[in-house]
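Subject: mismatched residue count in predicted assembly?

I count 685 residues in my input, but I want to confirm that the predicted structure covers every chain. Input:
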Amino acid sequence: MSESSWFRTKPGIFTGIAIIAAVLLILPFMLASVGTAWVRITNLAILFALLSLGLNIVVGFAGLLDLGYIAFYGVGAYTYALLASPHFNLHLPFWVILPIGALLACIFGVMLGAPTLKLRGDYLAIVTLGFGEIVRIFLNNLSQPFNITNGPQGVSRIDPFTVGSFSFSKPETLAGLVFSGPIKYYYLLLLVLLVVIVVNVRLQDSRIGRAWVAIREDEIAAQAMGINTRNVKLLAFAMGASFGGIAGGMFSAIQGFISPESFVLVESIMVLAMVVLGGMGNIWGVILGAILLSFVPEILRYTVEPFQKAVFGKMLVEPEVIRMLLFGLALVLMMLYRPAGLWPSRTRRRELASRDK
Amino acid sequence: MDIFLQQIINGLTLGSVYAIVALGYTMVYGIVQLINFAHGEVVMIGAMVALWVISSLAGGAMPPVVIVLAGILCAIPVCMAVGYTMERVAYRPLRSAPRLAPLITAIGISIILQHVAMLVWSRNPLPFPQILANPIFEIAGATISAVQIAIIVLSLLMMGGLTLLVYRTKLGVAMRATSENPQVAGLMGIDINRVISMTFIIGAGLGAMAGVMVGTYYGQAHYTMGALLGLKAFCAAVLGGIGNLAGAMLGGMLLGVVEALGTGYIGEITDLCHVSGISTALAERCAEDGHMVVFGSNYQDVFAFIVLILVLVFRPSGLLGERVSDRA
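Triage response: the counts match. Full output below for your records.
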């Protein structure tokens, strides 16, 4: 059963969608009344949802484990940062850079995928992991002898998105409501997320989407059905990478500052944890996973810190460490007890449940 | 000083460590076709336990050699226990699950081990106590330290011991039978679960030794040290042909030498001043600085991955391995 037919058979669902839409539209103002920081956190959560959806194409749909996914995010982020900051004194508009970033990430994806996709899945995992490391090493060191990436200091004063005189970073008042920078970005991100979800849903049911699932289930059978497995896998890789590139560009603009620190292995694993926790292959599950895990550090900060201070009088275990331990545990426990995720896709559940393979 | 010979010596030292770690990967892979992602963390735990024991005993009445031995003898059982538990908890229940599942639990285990180590020991790199005298010898213009000699000799001994174990003992026969065909081996009366557990335990024991060696060599230990070391060792195992013991040894040594030579010479090779004739601006800068290095020795960690990708493209079965590019 596909998402779209389910959509059609239940007209009452439109009321539900209207309610969700209304909540999403007023959400930033509610958050802003608590603190602008929460709007920023929500924005990051949406960015991670974008990233997870990209990785979901590779891991969830096509069943290829990519452990260097954050590298594509980094490529997109650095493309934006270098083409729209005082670093090279270039200030191209974002609608020019984002496609360039997506294309570059896509090229990197193909370059990486081409030699390794004919090999077994676990090799791909290691090679992508190595690739992620290589990208980080290059970002860190490409400041000598020509200063390209500005090394570990990173690139700062990156331009925000602007359309004509409308800048996403300046607050504006409209009909008595203050639209601060983060709130504007929130709506933009929400729009992009919506587009990406639609693209994903359509992809999933398309010829390509079905080919990906076929390869994931049984590569030899898929090949026998006339699927060019190598090209289709490469396509999954390239598409996942370009989504990462776009998310990276937006990250750059929103943060205004990036450094290689943001593109380390831990981040790749975090995105993977989001996909695995939510439910590999299920778009809604993945979004759920991304939002849950994005808020974990904040929730820990507000619960673990006061708790430890109250009980032990000081901080014994930092929230950051607890977060990583929770990620690790989540990965292990999910695979052992609920391999299809919190919100599994039906086919994936069937596949992962069959242990007598 | 002869730089070339020096780099070879350094490369062989590091290569011995890679080889010992690579053996852990290749043994497990040969038997259960699983990349034990968390093996690097076992190495790190080995280094940490040894460091802890050695620094708490150091300064006492015992002679330094005994203290180091005590450190090693504590590290090995701890790592073996970690390896055994890992297999029992995270891999055995998933043995017949799709390939992606144990790979993901392995990543989870690796994160957990790293952060537990960080909580138990330290967030910062700890100095590895250097209590043994470390005289330096000179051969043909290059130097070699006693620690380097010890690392190379111990590694060779361990490799020999492992070869004997695999080819001359009953357990070795069982291991080889299991890797050939687990079902049939089971029918022949071999306890497969025991053999797999033993493989993890032996691999972890070797990992502990590697941890002590690398800690002594670099003079420090850190909770993240296992990740990169493990990755490089995996590259070495693939270079030699994964699943193949001799391949892991050869691959480790070769990778160590390639990395040392690469790091030693990349700066000189990519010095743009060799071709300073192509532009006057370049010639001016070269006249000022003398060098204009594009890729310096800070690219050290890139070589292993380049080797890995080259091997996978041109000879996926590795130097000594059988064909592995079959689709699972």
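Chain A touches chain B through 50 residues (CB under 8 Å). Marking this ticket as 'not a bug'.
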